[in-house]
Amino acid sequence: MQQKAVVLLSGGLDSSTVLAIAHRQGFELHTLSFDYGQRHQREVEAAAAIARHYSVVEQKTVHIDLRALGGSALTSDIAVPHHRSLEDMAHDIPITYVPARNTIFLSFALAYAEVSGANDIFLGINAIDYSGYPDCRPEYLEAYERMANLATKASIQDGRSVHIHAPLLRMGKADIIRKGIELGVPYEHTWSCYEGHELACGTCDSCLLRLAGFAEAGITDPIAYVQTIAHEVR
Fold first, then answer.
1. Full residue range of the structural domain in which residue 200 is found
2. How many domains is the chain partitioned into structurally?
3. Tell me: the pLDDT tens digits for 32-82?
4. CATH number of the domain bearing residue 53
5. In a 10 Å sphere around its CB, with 0-12 CB exposed, 13-18 middle and 19+ buried, how is residue 160 labelled?
6. Is the pLDDT of residue 101 over 50?
């Protein structure tokens, strides 16, 4: 019997690559995306396009409004930083960090997995090119998996074990892109920019990390940008 997996799918480069990995591993795919009031609503459309590409069994988009809490440039009227160096990105937790976002998303994924009969959850967190987010670290992931196996009927009564997979955790952006190209990920359908305009800005942290990764991999990024300055990122 084909095993089921829940894949957290933002529509970005990393989560799309993770979906391709789960697809290659033969899982029955159930994807979960979030419209959480983020300024870059384009990623919701991107997630739907990626889910269609992989013919997932079910794609759910959950609507929650994290603007009610604010505290992030992605969910409030705080300006998104631009033109930062990689050194600056690694120095402090940036204002684009959304408080407890991965914990909130994983909670929904855990509930979806329990209901759908999936024992495996995939997500695209990364501990190298991660812009300093505290909920993208191995110790966070390990702690969450321990908690997940203490917190559900599926684990306590039914004897199921939840396994959380983060196959990109220790990969640099260029290696992620190379892996995605190998797997045929349609990166032209993905969206990484923190700004929600028609074209990616090319200068926010997420765009800079993406562009630097494509440059290092020696591959042309297939999406359009207002400006591309990956060669300037150090």
1. 4-232
2. 1
3. 999 999 988 899 999 999 999 999 999 999 999 999 999 999 999 999 999
4. 3.40.50.620
5. middle
6. yes
